[in-house]
Design a protein that fits this description.
14 helices; alpha/beta; Aldehyde Dehydrogenase, Chain A, domain 1; homodimer
């Protein structure tokens, strides 16, 4: 952990970015077997160096009070033998995934005989900025390398020793297996300005991916000159249609809201058709009684459920990430769609219905990364979609939308083969 | 053409953007037939209102000297009956293209029975900023509407009357065919600040597309808060390998350089293998003798061709867009690849060779939107690729690379159908 004077810091960042670019040229040409050898060797070294990683983690844990981490944050920071085994296992899983690079996405022969293929290639250099969980260090590196990208990692200072000890395993594996030395680089300086310098280097870095709290993401979006793959809010809705199966609706709402409250695909706002509100809402209240969940309702909701508090206009836009659920009664499917498209965050929205027409209308009109019919919002996830590995869930429409796996870290090029064609 | 005071201008821009967003919701759900009816009716109205369009164009031509347009620019601005017929014909061609919206890109059934489909949907609202050619007004609107997007058009002031008379046809067609009224909007104020206001409205506008000179593009990239689909340089290379067919190489170089010099996919820099340089370069000199082309060469080139001027280091990065060609002799394919990846603009680069290994190595290692083997660089074009219509050629890697047609103006969403699944 060195700190730098300002010009030296800028030079250091430029050097890191240039090395990453050079490594990326070699990485893009690397075969699948070589990338997988690195992944498997990294997993082996993580296991064989468990003691060293735990020792480094112990140093981070010792400093945790200085950073004001609460007990949940300390728990996320803490490694043990089984967590290290999980990190190693995740690396092996990425080795088992199909290599996206080289895929012929499509192709055609033109009337003049030119043969055109659209081939998947890496983006180039990824700058990955994340907060305290040390397992992200290995996960992010694995996904970037498997998709042929060089990666510059910037982890949170709270986990810096743990991350660095994991990086040492990954870099030693690179040396042993012939992966370009600068394919995985870790920013060691705690200097906050390093991120700012790197975010300006769009000539060398192709994409920035922040993973963490809203403050981090907003800073990266504001400062980055390269494109950003990001995740903002997940204000997810469920609409209970008048033709819903109540038992199914209750089960899905409970799962969407309560299975894990602090995640982006958890339910935040319930919309209920007026035709069933009076029958359904008391059952919902009973279903959720075992959880300490506060309901914030519209006027009708509050009339039906005296325990509900009145919702303010702000509530409709909020991502609570905790034990609060807003509830709105609407007159029609159309009103539900307008409300969700207006107040939602275009992340995950679901309808519970047995009516085919309503289901078709909802899935066509809702402008969200994932639109669910009769399923929990919690399924909007790279693992659940079968991607095998995930760097996050994009709330953008550009380039990648929804869960981002290996393919979302790629682009394509056109290869055009001829035998002397010229343009008339 | 109204001008506004500053707060009124900002309000006007916000109103335009909001109307576009509202129109885009309806457009995204519109069937193919309705979009095609609008395209065909627009073509009809353009033809039947030819006199009015020519009258408006006459007013623009009368003002052309005030804007300092040269004769080439005036020629691009000038409409006549046959040019209007071409614009109408282009609209009909877009009607004939397949509708990208609703395409199921892929899908799967998960082990828990969830059925996931990835469906192509519009981006939403496109802000299209272009310079003087009035035909772009119709072309851009056609591509945006066919791909389900609402469009805000901002044309150059030099063509404002022509563009506005074309817009009147498109909007009248919208009214007659039931297309949402604000699907196609045209910014009528000549105020330069209108562009700046609109570029800040990333909440309402999904993508900005500038088409014109470098100054325009840099301004848009600098100011836009939404993603930009853009075209920077086209410093295109041809590498003549030692195993090249000389006749083919000469024919392809002549076509790539001379068929149209001022376009982005024209040849700017030639790289020649040392093994053939002495035999090949004099033939090249003879082949190009009928054109007034200046060769700027490396030391070896200048030794072989006394007519060549010495190239400076700057020349290797230049996009001349005119009668200059830089020529570099290299010792190997590897050196050619390094040079092209370093100095090129990742747009279009070609190899001329009969050697399969060289062709494979070149296409794998060159990091460009289109990599050609034994074909003219001029083929990197949406029309030549079979896209049917094109909004430009992207030099970015993110979202869209190379020629951008209808599909490049789309994104996707995941539709997940279940029968009550919850996450364990």
């Amino acid at each position: 952990m060195n700190t730098f004077e300002s010009p030296a810091l800028a030079d250091y960042c430029l050097d890191v970015a240039r090395r990453a670019r050079a490594a990326s040229s070699a990485l893009g040409l690397l075969g699948t077997a070589a990338k997988n050898r690195w992944l498997i060797k990294s997993a082996e070294l993580l296991i064989s160096r468990t003691a060293a990683v735990l020792e480094a983690n112990g140093r981070d844990l010792a400093h945790a009070p200085d950073y004001g981490l609460d007990s949940a944050a300390i728990d996320r920071l803490r490694l043990n033998e089984s967590r290290i085994a999980e990190i190693a296992s995740a690396l092996r899983q990425v080795a088992n995934l199909p290599d996206p690079i080289g895929e012929v996405i499509e192709g055609s022969r033109r009337p003049n005989g030119l043969e055109i293929t659209k081939v998947r290639v890496p983006l180039g250099v990824v700058f990955f900025i994340y907060e305290s969980r040390p397992n992200v260090t290995a996960d992010a590196a694995a996904i970037c390398i498997k998709s042929g990208n060089a990666v510059i990692l910037r982890g949170g200072k709270e986990a810096i020793h743990s991350s660095q000890s994991i990086i040492e395993c990954l870099q030693a594996a690179a040396e042993e297996t012939g992966l370009p030395q600068d394919a995985v680089q870790f920013i060691t300086t705690p200097d906050r300005e390093a991120v700012g310098h790197l975010l300006k280097l769009d000539e060398w870095i192709d994409v920035a991916i922040p993973r963490g709290g809203e403050g981090l993401i907003r800073r990266v979006v504001e400062e980055a000159r390269m494109p950003v793959i990001k995740h903002f809010d997940g204000n997810c809705h469920i609409f209970v249609d008048q033709h819903a199966d109540f038992d199914m609706a209750l089960r899905i709402i409970e799962n969407s809201k309560c299975q894990r409250m602090g995640v982006c695909n958890a339910l935040e706002s319930l919309v209920v058709h007026r035709g069933i509100a009076k029958d359904f809402l008391p059952k919902l209240d009973a279903q959720l009684a075992k959880y300490p969940i506060e309901l914030r309702g519209c006027i009708t909701t509050c009339q039906i459920l005296p325990t509900a508090r009145p919702a303010s206009d702000e509530d409709w836009s909020r991502e609570y990430l905790g034990p609060i659920l807003s509830v709105l009664v609407v007159d029609s499917l159309e009103e539900a769609i307008l409300h969700i498209n207006r107040y939602g965050s275009h992340h995950t929205d679901a309808i519970i219905t047995n009516d085919l027409k309503a289901s078709r209308q909802f899935t066509a009109a809702i402008d969200s990364a994932a639109v669910m019919v009769n399923a929990s919002t919690r399924f909007n996830d790279g693992g659940e979609f079968g991607f095998g590995a995930e760097i996050g869930i994009s709330t953008d429409k550009f380039h990648a939308r929804g869960p981002c796996g290996l393919r979302e870290l790629t682009t394509y090029k056109y290869i055009v083969q001829g035998d002397g064609q010229i343009r008339p």
